[in-house]
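re: ur question from yesterday

yeah so i grabbed the chain u mentioned. its 288 aa long if i counted rite. heres the sequnce exactly as i have it in my notes:
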Amino acid sequence: MEGQVEGRRIELSKKVFSEQLKQLYTSLSRQDSLDVANPKAPARQLFNTLIAPIAPLLESRGVTTLLIAADRGLQPVPFAALHDGRRYFGDRYAFAITPSLALTNLRTGASDPLGQTLLAAGASTFDGLAPLPLVPQELEHVGGKGSKDVFLNRDFTPEVLLEKAGDPRYSRVHVATHAEFLPGGPSASYLYSGTGPIPLSTFSRLRQQRKGAPLDLISFSACRTALGDPSSELGFAGLAVQAGARSAAGTLWYVDDVATSAYFQQMYRYLGQGVPKAESLQLTRQAF
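ran it thru and got these structure tokens back, copy pasting raw so excuse formatting
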């Protein structure tokens, strides 16, 4: 790190902030217009609160990528959807979120002894849940023509994620399935394999298996996998980071099967070209 630390302290009303965030989530989940031409729109108001105080500093220093250490209450903010009246924050910046800088390995990791194989696991049919017909196509295309092992439906068991993902020859893991995040701690939330649910609490097993060779990326192509509560910050994605992954990609709300599949396929195309993860997400947003 270089340069002087710059501090800005912003006071806000929790009540007003929570209401603005609720309104923004409502618009996003309904796919309503965010009304960004209106200065009083939640996307504009939240930008003014969280980003505007440091925007001149970012511009003067030519910052293009940010690491946001988000405390409780700020982690569910959909930063990409905030708007300054001209551009969306997620269009202007590449960014990543962490619950703590202490959990973040800031080394590039170029010399680490990681394998180069992708583990792609997913389920398209379930007992009692809606099918996800595009999952087979998604698993086929993510990662391009690189080295990849695919586990689909009945081949995608809990052991695939909790044991095979511990093999250091895998550098990245992509999971496409249903997920259910519920309040009440990690044991109350699940990813669904092709043979049954996987509790969020079991992710801690990955840390021991990946000791000395952390996963470069775990991506969750499923609903609300980056949404958490005070006992599980950042949900599945946050727990993956705590379990030793360098990075995790997840979602904040219920997502469409078609759009999500296309999004991750495009993101992996950029990753395959050597584009850093935060920039790959940014370029995919711009492409959409």
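noticed a couple things. The longest helix spans residues 14-30. also The beta strands are 65-69, 94-98, 117-122, 148-152, 170-176, 179-180, 190-192, 197-199, 217-221, 248-249.
anyway ttyl
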